[in-house]
Amino acid sequence: MTKLLVSAALGLALAAGVATPALAAPKAAAAAPAAAQSEIAYANPDGVVQASNAFRVANQQRQVTYKAQFDQYEKRRGELEAQMQGLQKAFEAARSAPNPNQASLQQQAQQIQALQQSAQAELQQITQPIVYSQAYVSEQISDKLPAMAKRGVKLLLNQESVILESPSYNLNPAIVAELNALLPTAQIVPPAGWEPRQVREARAQQQGAAAPAAPSTSAQPSGR
Known about the structure:
Blueprint: H1 6-15, H2 28-31, E1 40-43, H3 45-51, H4 53-65, H5 67-96, H6 102-142, E2 155-158, H7 172-182, H8 197-210
Parallel strand pairs: 1-2
Helix pairs in contact: 1-6, 3-7, 4-6, 5-6
C-alpha cells in the first residue's frame, strides 16, 4: 500500500532535484562550437535548465530554506505509512479467516482507499511550497532560453526527437554556458500568490471555456 504514496514522494524528489537528465557524452562539450556553423542543431530544454548553475545552487539553498517542509514531509509520511500498514495487516488477517465477513471486508477496503486518497492529498499539500519553489526557479531559467538565438540556428530540435545524435550538432554545453552567464543565481522563494505556468495556463483555459460568447455586433435589417 505504501506504493500509493509514490506520487507525493516523487513530487518531493523532483523538488530536491534528485534526477538531472543527461545532456550529452563527455566529448560533446569540445565539439559544441561546430554546431554554431550549422543551421540545424538539437538540445535538451529541461536538461540544460537543470544543468545550469542557478538550478544547482537553488537546489542546495532549498534544502535549508524549506527544511521545515522537508522534515514535516518525512515525519508525516512515516506516520501515514505505519497507519496504512496496520490497516492492510488487519485486512489481510480478516480476509484469511474462515468464513470471512464480506461486508466487513468491503468496509475495511473502503477505509484503506479513503486513507490512501487523504494521505496523498495531505503529502502533496505539505510539499507544495517545495514544488512551487522548484517550478519558480525553472521558469526564471527557462525564460532566458528564447534570448539565446544568436548562433545562426534556424531549426532547433528537441534532443528526445533525434534518432542519431552527432556531437557537432549538440548545443547543450553552449546553452548551459550562456545560461550561467545570463542568470548566475535565481530566487528560490516565489512571490505571494505565485503559481507555476502550467497551473496558470490551465486556469486561463478554464476561464476561456467558461466565458460566455460575445453578442453579435452585426447590423440588423431595419423593420421599416
